[in-house]
Amino acid sequence: MSEFARTKAMRQFYRDIFTRQIDLPEADAMPAHVVAEIFSFRSGDMTFLEPMIAAASTGLDTEKEDALKNMLRAIALANQALEIKGQSQQKPFPVELSRRITEYVVAALKADNNTHYIVAAIQILFRVNEISSALFLINNNLSLVSDSGIVLKILLLVCLMEDDYNQAMVVIQALTADASLIGEDPMTLLMITCGIYKLGGLPDSFIDFRTLDNSNYPVHDAGYTWLLEKECKVNTTVLVACDKGDYFAHTLPLVSSLYETNRGVLDVHLHLFNSDDEVKESVRALREQLPELHISATLEQVSASDDMPAEFAARRILFLCHAMQAFTTPVIALNSDVLVRQAWVSPGAPLLLLENETSPFWEEIFPGFIYAEPGSLSGCYFATVARFISCNLKADNLVWCLGPVALSASLDRLSGTEQMAISRVARASILGDAGEAGVFCWAFGGGQNAEESSQQYSASLIQKYQR
Q1: What is the rounded distance in angstroms from the CA atom of residue 252 to the CA atom of residue 257?
Q2: Beta bridge partners of 145
Q3: pLDDT, tens only, 409-430
Q4: pLDDT 10s digits, 367-409
Q5: Each residue's pLDDT tens digit, 90-101
Q6: How high does pLDDT run on average in the chain?
Q7: 282 and 430 inside one domain
Q8: Which of 178, 364, 384, 438 has the fewest CB atoms below 10 angstroms from its CB?
Q9: What sign does the dihedral 44-48-54-57 (CA atoms) show?
Q10: Contacts for 391 with CB less than 8 Å, ≥ 6 apart
Q11: Whether residue 12 sits in one domain with residue 79
């Protein structure tokens, strides 16, 4: 793990998970409004904060006051690294800011190297992607931080990202030896479960992996019903699964973009969750309006759960598994929140998967675009995926990344020859930000300019095709 290349390249989201909350009891010596700005509002505006930090009276001796203030300066500057909601483009954290943060951290620890400060320093450095420095602090203070849940979680994430499973096993053993270190944290449970699987185990809780070796597990019948039968059995079929909100917000523009770019080449199948009469009438009208897409549709009623988006995401892949048996055409399973920009060209492989190369195991395979042709390879693969998802849904293991985990783990049950037949390409080669030329489709989001491009394209499609 000398370079930590994959850890440095991962989404800021993962660096934020274990660093958003920093426990620093010493900060109670500072005025409440300063603490609130840094820890609650997560301000990173040093022009505003520095005068307040410098002028604050803490009642501590000079050395300890300097240590506290330098640590607060480091945390405030590091707040600028936190991921902004809706921002898909990750920008490198400025080198100069990292240098200043490191200087503040070093100054604070020289003046007062208590355990709270060491743990906070590790979190700060990890947040701003100073991975080597964070691990240096862990290794040099192992006796002080070995019982810190947050430090062990950071260390486990790095181990998993760098495929260092020997070290991961040691960290997992430390975490599982004391349940209080884990708590109810779903990300930690996910890391432990996937870590145990990568170490050769078949976990049966949080996510159940046992169906990977049980080909006789019965897949639950979801009770799909046809709204519009599939009439054309020649063209590749684009499968889009959505609920009512997604249908009107995203699916309609997506279908229009398919008509604009691929009419007569691609067909469309809509799998509708909990649809009402308004949605059904709209789909019927859409098929009449855009006959070259040969629109077909199925319905599925899904009971209310604590996380309906996760439920729909898992059931979308489960229906894809069903479609590979029910349809005689190749299928492209596509997220609803994209717009197609280019004519489709067959990849020349029976299965095309998009990889997130800088993501952990549970996000390695992107579920928002999957191309599959009927045949023994896809049949074997999706049968395993279906068992995995069906088993976990039945057990109420409703984990947000259940689908991607199923897609990744099921690949491991294919033979070497079968795996070589699969085309695995970078996600960005097929699905790009709006405004990007040459990609098959655009994703919504990606910053202001990209958002404007997708909105303009979507608006032009609505004006042209939607009645």
Answers
A1: 9
A2: none
A3: 999 999 999 999 999 999 999 9
A4: 999 999 999 999 999 999 999 999 999 999 999 999 999 999 9
A5: 788 999 999 999
A6: 94
A7: yes
A8: 438
A9: negative
A10: 208, 210, 211, 217
A11: yes
